[in-house]
Design brief:
With 308 residues, the chain is of the alpha+beta class. It contains two helices and 21 strands.
Length: 308
């Protein structure tokens, strides 16, 4: 009987050790921390949880979230199509909408446009999980904050800012430049408010493209690209034939024209004075004519008194 009791105690000890070793091997529930450029939109919807599932799913299983690695600021040129890109992961059966903050106007839902302004369109790229807001022919008034929203409970959104800019092209000293014969003409064209420098800046003289390899020689252009792009047109040993209209035409901005006057020993003030003198002579002539007519009329009335 003692042997039976010893065997039972031994078996119980072995079972306890075995049970303890098995409990150590069980994996504990853990959570997954997504990369920083992933934005978790919300926790589970109550309808998505089934008792024991709470605390077991990791954040990537909890519903849709935004990939915020892209810039939240978008700059577009007036008239050039703008895209606001919203990348949503784990969308499931939810819907992506775009809302304009200025007036809380609903623009798109899914792929459908929900505004009378048909310039706003939703573009879906399933390969990248992108839901982009496409804005056709944007104008400065379209600038502002737009929100990409997911139809979770409650809804969650990701805001982006659109800046619609109109490039400005100027020529320093315009619209008229006066240059002495034999000196160097330096036309400085400045282009501002472009998201990136214009690929090409074209210079023309009297509507004809300038040939920098022409026999005339001494004509060159220097362009410095950056946030503000500057193009310098240099014409050495200016001649009277170099006078005329010069136009700076950036490929992604509006052109600007300046009138160049190459003077042969004549000062600009003399030209302006001559123009003023001609205007004054014309005005004086008109005044004399009016006075003469008035005088003739009065004389006629005195010679032919009215009959009563």
């Amino acid at each position: 009987m003692k042997h039976i009791v010893v065997v039972m105690i031994f078996l119980n000890i072995n079972n306890g050790i075995s049970s303890h070793s098995q409990s150590v091997d069980i994996d504990e529930p853990h959570t997954y921390t997504p990369p920083k450029h992933y934005f978790q939109t919300s926790s589970f919807d109550d309808a998505d949880l089934d008792g024991d599932d709470i605390g077991v799913k990791n954040p990537l299983d909890r519903g849709p979230y935004f990939d915020i690695s892209a810039s939240r600021n978008v700059t577009a040129l007036v008239g050039n199509t703008a895209y606001l890109n919203c990348r949503v992961r784990n969308l499931g059966n939810r819907t992506v909408s775009w809302i304009r903050h200025r007036d809380l106007h609903l623009l798109t839902v899914g792929k459908a446009t929900y505004t009378s302004d048909q310039r706003y369109q939703s573009v879906h790229n399933p390969a990248l999980d992108d839901w982009s807001l496409k804005v056709l022919y944007p104008q400065p008034r379209d600038s502002g904050v737009y929100e990409c929203q997911i139809s979770t409970t409650p809804p969650v959104g990701y805001s982006m800012t659109l800046a619609v800019v109109e490039p400005i092209t100027t020529i320093v000293g315009g619209p008229d430049l006066y240059i002495d014969t034999g000196s160097t003409v330096n036309l400085t064209c400045i282009v501002r408010h472009l998201p990136e420098p214009p690929p090409v800046i074209l210079w023309t003289h009297n509507s004809e493209e300038i040939n920098y390899d022409s026999p005339r020689g001494g004509v060159s252009v220097i362009t410095e690209k950056g946030d503000i792009t500057t193009s310098y047109l240099l014409i050495q040993r200016a001649k009277t034939s170099d006078s005329g209209k010069y136009t700076c035409s950036p490929s992604t901005a509006n052109p600007i024209t300046v009138n160049v006057h190459v003077l042969n020993g004549e000062h600009p003030a003399a030209i302006q004075s001559g123009q003023s003198l001609q205007s004054n002579l014309l005005l004086s002539g008109c005044c004399c004519l009016v006075l003469l007519l008035l005088s003739v009329t009065l004389t006629g009335q005195q010679r032919w008194p009215a009959v009563r």
